[in-house]
């Protein structure tokens, strides 16, 4: 009778699931810390104000300040870090750190 109780078909899963979840949370926290420490920098001395970066930014965090004729960043923490703007800028005015 005791042996039948061992094979109920219920997996001993909860501890494993908990460990996986904790790992994912730790990874997310570490990734977030990494992202928070990075910045999007625009060299205003180089920027032409062409707007290419603003046009291709998928997060819409870049725009051209028309008065100063340079690109600006609204919120660098929302950057996807794929460096599309950095590669597209014709004068190398953007740096993702
Ligand atoms: S692509 Fe480069 S030069 Fe053009 S607005 Fe953006 S930072 Fe300035």
Protein model, in words:
The protein has 97 residues and is of the alpha+beta class. It is 39% helix and 14% strand. The chain has a single domain (14-96), classed as Alpha-Beta Plaits (2-Layer Sandwich), CATH 3.30.70.20. The strands form 2 sheets. A two-stranded antiparallel ribbon has the order 1-4. Strand 2 (62-65) and strand 3 (70-73) form a beta hairpin. The chain starts with a helix and ends with a strand. The model has no long low-confidence stretch (mean pLDDT 83). The structure holds iron/sulfur cluster. The site of iron/sulfur cluster has 14 residues, from helix 3. The site of iron/sulfur cluster (SF4) has 14 residues, from helix 3.
SSE layout:
Layout: H1 2-6, H2 14-36, E1 40-42, H3 52-56, E2 62-65, E3 70-73, H4 84-88, E4 94-96
Antiparallel strand pairs: 1-4, 2-3
The structure holds iron/sulfur cluster (SF4).
């Amino acid at each position: 009778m005791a042996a039948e109780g061992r094979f109920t078909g219920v997996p001993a899963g909860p501890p494993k699931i908990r460990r996986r979840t904790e790992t994912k949370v730790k990874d997310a926290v570490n990734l977030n810390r990494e992202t928070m420490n990075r910045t999007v920098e625009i060299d205003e001395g180089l920027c032409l104000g062409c707007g290419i970066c603003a046009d291709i930014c998928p997060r819409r965090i870049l725009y051209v300040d028309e008065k100063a004729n340079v690109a600006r960043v609204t919120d660098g923490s929302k950057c996807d870090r794929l460096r599309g703007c950095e590669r597209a800028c014709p004068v190398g005015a953007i740096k993702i750190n």
